[in-house]
Amino acid sequence: MRLTPGPARDVDLDRVDLFDLDLYASGDPHPIWDVMRSKAPLHHQVLPDGREFWSVTRYADVCRVLGDHREFTSERGTVVTHLGVDDVAAGTLMTSTDPPRHTEVRRPIGARLTARAVKSWEDSIRGTVVRFLAPALDGETFDLAERALLLPAMVTGPLLGIPEKDWEELVQLTAMVTAPLDPHFKLGSEAATLAISHHELVTYVKEWVTTRRAAGHEDDSLLHHLMSVRPGGAPLTDEEIALDGYSILLGANVTTPHTISGTVQALAERPEQFEKAQADPSLVPNLVEEGLRWTSAACNFMRYAVDDTAIGGGTIPAGGAVVAWIGSANRDASQFADPHAFDVTRSAKGQVAFGFGPHYCIGAPLARLTLRIFFEELLQRFGSIELAGAPQHLRSYFIAGMTHLPIAAQKRQTP
To answer: Which domains does the chain have, with CATH numbers?
Structure first.
């Protein structure tokens, strides 16, 4: 979807279809979200097949929905592709589980992903980023979005315990989960694409666990660590390990590349912002937070109201699906002044690109470290960036991203 919105326009909210894939692949949802925040902060939509959902678009309401599991449960599914059919892994899969079980599984994994813990990976990540950027400096057109899909696997593969030979396949499978109707990733219907990708990813982790157990192999990887997690004092079953491993693989792969692509596009379109960040390296942390806010790669998350719940000037009935639009919350003028301006000097630490509350992204410290290193190296090595073709946006209402972003970069001339 377009990250720089077009001009404000009249919007008939009764006719808005937030599940229209064209809105994200070639359209512009931001003017619609602007109107929703102003006139309909709680919006109800019924799909042609009878499924229905309520949307919240204001920053405070999005934080409330994501932050209070007693009002809004995750235990029927948390992604909009499951709307109308409860997630079969809900209550087991970490992302589709409420506290206290969610906390019991998350805490020991999160201890391995704190900012202090991932700091030891900085040199390794920097080497990976330098190798990734090198081909962009040979003077030829470089398709950043296409190549960036593999970058998270290059960074997290060793941390997870995934061999390099499997990275490309796993990246393809995780993309199929999050964009099952994008022509780059779909295999037949949406349902078929989701079924195939889910099965292949869960099977991969199961076989990984079986092989490690049979060999008596122990290591310091995150997937191996899952084998020792004991929520409530009992070890996870192989099925639970496989499902949580699947969740970790998704989280590792699907958002960072789109944050990178969208932020680089913003810098290419605004040379003055590129020059500001290059002139003052202390702005890189700001650039990272602004890039996260600007791109909001995980565009939304879904919850279900536990009881009739008043919010946004209306009421969501008990059992009603509610979609919290992160892409809208991060452009809420009540929280971010001049929200449709990309500004590397902005302090955007309140952005909710990583979510909010109990399900706040467990890998956020690693993602932030990767993004910081990426932009440090880019600003140090690139003298300029220009778009070398039109971006091609992901056909997904869940992940806001790109499949193609051709750029032409010039090496920075050192004194």
So the answer is: 13-411 (1.10.630.10)
